[in-house]
């Protein structure tokens, strides 16, 4: 879309200015108070679109969970580096214990330190999953681009989210190709690796293999990558808590306090989560027993209990507000007792407390709503506040939801940081142009409109001729063949009707006629959309991709992710056409040939390039020959026209990954300043 200039504001500018003085026109966030601003936005729909996007981002961010950095005095995560210049890339392998269909994988950055203001998140890496420990057969979850100068964006203190597309695996491997150079080559650090399956974390307590890790006992070690401790805060969002939990002021440090509850029936337990009692008086202060033990029983009254662990949660330091995750690895029990063996000391006070207890089994918190009995100095007290779903401050949400919201917030804040200065500059330029245009319009009301109309007619003549040829070609290819099929099938239906002397036997033919006619109508609608200039941004393309997927992938589970921060950028007509037809051809191939059950579509930035990925878990492409060549021939032609690179990965029984990488400079329409 052209940048607004004074020549665009002249026709009818006097009348528009008078109308704006009496009729309010609202911008994206706040009403534009001055009349010139209103006029500028009337003639610059692009500015209004950007302001609307900024307003939507602000509203969306306000509804998402917010990271609250809390210091980890112990079990900070894992650090690794390349052991020697010729050593292989450092890698971390998680053993989940059994096979799971994987949904997402989150890489959680280590907490920030004054000496490392940029953090130590790896810059180039690969994520893989496999059913076998040696990764002889594997699926790639994330693969960096071919350009070694392009790095994954630093997530700072937000989780980096990667879609696993339902891949079934037991082992997950992170291979770091490029880290940071801070005295050691390719140094990197992570606080946690969280693997989600069926909306629940299945990596808590998993075995971690990280050969050559930089281990400092109590601070950095491979096992800390799956202990559930993250510096991002508490898994909470939404409503404020009606209570702060349960706090006991013990008479001496060794005064024991126990909390017990009955689950109602015997169940396999994945892990136990204890949320500390937060002290509003201290910014990092929270109370958990300094030492505690966990007991389980198969009986409702807790008799014949057996101990499953002694946990030193403080290590002589303040634990902070991070929840404590205790893996139980499928241990079956009916009742649970948590005993605080030693109090947390603050001055002359000895405190023991909790704000919430969760017991997870098969993706559900089965402790929710169960009454808790606290026993202290022989006195039993019934509590409902420890299983009400609230921490000391807010409502607790699922780990997967919490991490997903934090990841989305980071991407939106990144986009907002780019759009805000652009929006301000566009508003200033548009208001300046509107001011000059209004001034010129007052003196040249009749002359300039004639010049503008004639000039536009001459400029657009060649463009209209080219568009007319394209329309004719598309109508001939897409619609002509379909209409020919309709004629042939109708003729066959007529012959069947005469021969069989009845209409019942021709139902199938007529239904096929209806289907082809419908496809013709949809193809015509796509052509019309491709020629629509008001819908030519990357965001408009993504919206059309969603509409097309909802129509073609009705029988398939699919996801569409847009991780590009350039959604407001305008595409050229050719780029818009070939990108959409590439996508449509890829989806058609999946529907017709792949037998896929899950499809993942992602549009993302990679430096100065735009990446379109279409991944399915179908039967894969034929191993060779004319059939495979014909399947990808049209896609290769579209990639060639876009001056992009098409990467095809296909494996029988695993699926197909199509990855189109195009320089953004070949796609984005340049403003016409004439």
TrEMBL record:
One Gene Ontology cellular component: membrane
PANTHER family named in the record: NITRATE/NITRITE SENSOR PROTEIN NARX-RELATED
Residues making up the signal peptide according to the UniProt record: 1-27
PROSITE patterns assigned: PROKAR_LIPOPROTEIN
Single annotated GO MF: phosphorelay sensor kinase activity
This protein's name: Histidine kinase domain-containing protein
Domain Signal transduction histidine kinase subgroup 3 dimerisation and phosphoacceptor, residue spans: 468-533
SUPFAM superfamilies reported in the protein's UniProt record: ATPase domain of HSP90 chaperone/DNA topoisomerase II/histidine kinase (SSF55874), Galactose-binding domain-like (SSF49785)
A Pfam family reported for this protein in Swiss-Prot or TrEMBL: HisKA_3
Keyword Oxidoreductase: no
Family annotation (CDD domains): HATPase_UhpB-NarQ-NarX-like (cd16917)
